[in-house]
Amino acid sequence: MRAILSPLKNDPVYKEIVDPRNAVLARFQPVFTQQHIPNISEEEFRSFLLFKNNRHWNGLHRQWRGICSDMPRLREALSLLVDESRPLIPRLDEAIGMIPGMGKAIVTAILLVAYPAQYGVWNNTSEAGLNLLEIWPQFDRGESFGSRYDKVNKNIGRVVR
């Protein structure tokens, strides 16, 4: 895998995504902490969803109206999502069901920003990459989102960590 990925590090698109990583984390990690989430504003959350600010993910902003329509509920879901004192699978299953429109790409992007050493983003791009590397996990019928993400995240970790 390292041999496959190594030449990509000189690709301008790779640099465009990776180089701003530290600035993005510096800006948004404090936003997605247990201490700040009770006071997170709609503007802060919407700002994260914009590609010009997060520098990694296009299209997250499309659902902002629905996601931000009930800010107290969004704050509750975000608090649950980043609560590392709870097991990952049940907290993901609960959090993703709380806010219509807040799907896997948004939820996992927040996890990555909050805990970059532990989580990866599950979106169409990462799914395609795992399929290309032939390490896309198998899911059981009816398997919950949290359980599916746990499998995906473990395989993302095999590539990037």
State the major sheet. Answer: none
Order of helical and strand elements: HHHHHHHHHHH
Category by helix and strand content: mainly alpha
Q: Compute the separation of the termini in Å.
A: 12 Å
Mean pLDDT, all residues: 90
How many domains make up the 3D coordinates? 1
Task: Report the C-alpha radius of gyration, rounded.
Answer: 16 Å
Give the helix proportion (percent range).
55-70%
Number of helices: 11
Question: Could you list the spans in which at least 5 consecutive residues all have pLDDT below 50?
Answer: none
Annotation, overall tally of beta strands: 0
Keywords:
161 residues; mainly alpha; 11 helices
Can you tell me about this structure?
Helix content is 58%, strand content 0%. It is built from 11 helices and no strands. It has helices at 2-5, 12-18, 21-28, 42-49, 51-54, 64-67, 71-81, 88-98, 104-114, 124-132, 145-160. Helix 7 packs antiparallel against helix 8 (88-98) and helix 8 crosses helix 11. The N and C termini lie close together (12 Å).
